[in-house]
Input
Amino acid sequence: MYCHKHILKTVCLLLLLLVAACASQPEIRVDVLPHYEVLFDRQTGWTGADGAYSVPLSNNLILWLFGDTWVGDNRSGEHVNAAIVNNSVALQHGRPPHGASVDFYFGETPGGKAAAFIRPADGRGWLWIYHGAIIREHLYLFMVQIERTEKPPAAGFRIIGTWLGDVANPGDSPEHWQITQRRIPWGSFSSSAATLFGSWVLKQGQWIYIYGTTEDVIDGFHYKYMILARAPAIGLAEFDQWEFFVKGKWSADFTKTERLCAGVANEYSVSFLAELGKYIVVYSDSSRPEDIVARFAPNPWGPWDDPISLYQCPEASWGTKIMCYAAKGHPDISQAPDELIVTYIANSTDFETMVVPSKPWQIAQTVWKNEAPRRRSPRARFVGRSIY
Output
């Protein structure tokens, strides 16, 4: 029997940001929104995961994309007969609080054991699913390819490539998806640094903006920076049509890609906040990952304001081995132009302490109010952070 104590709760928090003309920083109020907690609180099968990107397939059908995933049973707060697979997906039918439900999908080995939902086309290592988008009735998924190293388990992996998955029939049940994979040529991966695209995908008119990260590794610490590419909506899978943002212009030379802001993590989100008339990037601060921060900009490429703190993840105070990461917004499931649903992950660097005494893990929402008065207070929601 394979058994570990378990903690996974999805707590929705309401962050209210009030921006007054006389205030240099917004006021933030946090309230709990319990509806998503119910959706992702599972006792058997899929019982927890990290990553947590979302893609709308239709108005009332949301695709969730996950990385490492617990599959098994959760009995009295313990994983029983459980295993971790490297990715999974879920379909959310409807929107909380009105009768929403979620179906979860992962793979299976020929022997009937749980396996990753998507495996690398070249058979090497495994895939973590990042963001995706529906374009011309195809679902495109950005995926990061990982392989093991000889370091301790929590740090014993490295990125070796990125792939673009093309689902030709996203309207079918995920178990019947027809998926092809193309290796993305724009990236570099070494022990000293990595450059990748797929952290976020933003559709704007005829263009698809593909966000990513590059980094410097100094004394073992990874200093990460936002980078940006774009492709025509009809040419996302045609990599020779990609262009890269360089000093206010778009260039075909990937090696000159400009660093747009510092401190981001590999996973983050970029969306347009209609209430403010600005773009917002949400991420876990790479130097203090327990801090969820945001920056604002007038354009998808910036220039980005200095970061402001949105939320501090309380799990980080539970012990030195607890880490919080992967904060990101979910604009397409937010319900108003002044809302943003956000998720983050709480985890452990020690497999034996992946599970701590039962405490709620946080998910947050965020809401902004502009200087102009409104009839109702804006809301922003943080949804779904997982501890496992």
User: Anything to note?
Assistant: The mean pLDDT is 82. The longest helix spans residues 35-40. The chain is about 0% helix and 55% strand. The first strand starts at residue 3 and ends at 5.
